[in-house]
Predict the 3D structure of the following.
Amino acid sequence: RTMSKNIKRNKTSNADRGRNILIIIVIAVFAIVGAAYAGLLPLPGGGDQAAGSEQEIASEAPKEAAGGGDLVIQVADITEEPSFIAYDGPDFDMEIIAVKASDGTIRTAFNTCQVCYSSGKGYYEQEGDLLVCQNCGNSFGMDDVEVTKGGCNPFPITADYKTETTDTITIPGEFLKEAQVIFENWKTNV
């Protein structure tokens, strides 16, 4: 009878250990994802910009920069309607959302969802006055671009990772290259 109780106790302990291991794995996965997201944020090269590396963006939509240099957005081209700016790096493609918020500031973000990016449908399209994730359906207003962080929202490109003047917003090509991981499955399930 004592041996039977010990066997039951061991089974319970093994089940508890299995649950604990699963919890540790889940926590580790979240930690890795968080670290990967944080790893996207350091400004490469200390913010230095090589002469001649900027690429001007034409005012017609869709806007685009090719070759992997810095992305330069003309402030005068950005309105209350979101611009979806294509960026073609040497080995990757991505898209940036730029929109003028109600306070007059220009907001920028990667056009991929912080949660749904790996689904292939984790990108945003405009529906009326909202941007809507094509995977989960989360929607939000233009004033939330770059401000809202975490959850089902586009990855913000904050002031730390771009240079703003009265005429232009420059996002370094090296920073964009580091962010390519969040676009690996981008629009693959369209």
Observations:
- The chain has a mean pLDDT of 76.
- Residues 19 and 76 are 56 Å apart (CA to CA).
- The two ends are 62 Å apart (CA to CA).
- The longest strand covers residues 93-100.
